[in-house]
Amino acid sequence: MASPESISESSDEPDLVADHIADDAFYTFQEYEMFYATTEKVTEWRQSLNRFNYSISSAIVVGIAAIANWSLTTPRYATVGVASLVFIPLLGIQFCSAWKKQIGDYKQLNNAKFKVLAHMAPRLAYSSDYDKDITPPCPFDREWKELEAERATTTVKGLNIKALSASQQEYNLPRGFQAIYALTLGSAIFALIVNWGNFTNPLVVK
To answer: Number of C-alpha atoms within 13 angstroms, CB side, residue 141?
Structure first.
């Protein structure tokens, strides 16, 4: 019923959202189903965002490689090339920081949604003559307890929410691109320092 991505956003943190809902309220299964569908949408949006940001970051890396090659083959424009190799990686690092923040925001949004679902689950009325004395199955709660028992969960750093251990891997893409940008930035600054005299002296064009 629930995808691994969706389940990974659940949490056993205090239910702050549900505090505003009456404890004796009952909900139809259609309401529950409709709200659950929004958690799937949030996961789809996050995956789509990751694909878009990956494409942008890949394009930036290709651009950096092209500029580096152009600087090496056209010495008269080396200053412009090195300056670009300082400025562009700085932008790339900031872009990846925003990317990681977006991932965290979507995870927190789904976490809040699963808190609401956890509140609704034991209060579901499957039909108009539903017997309220029947104990609902609450599958998500049971599923999460099984995962915790198998030590398949972890606390997401900086978000204070629990998720599947594999959920942390989602941050590796922006971190990897940040490492590439940082390496490029360090190399450009090193080249600028070592060759400062060549960059500041006027070039003699033969």
So the answer is: 13
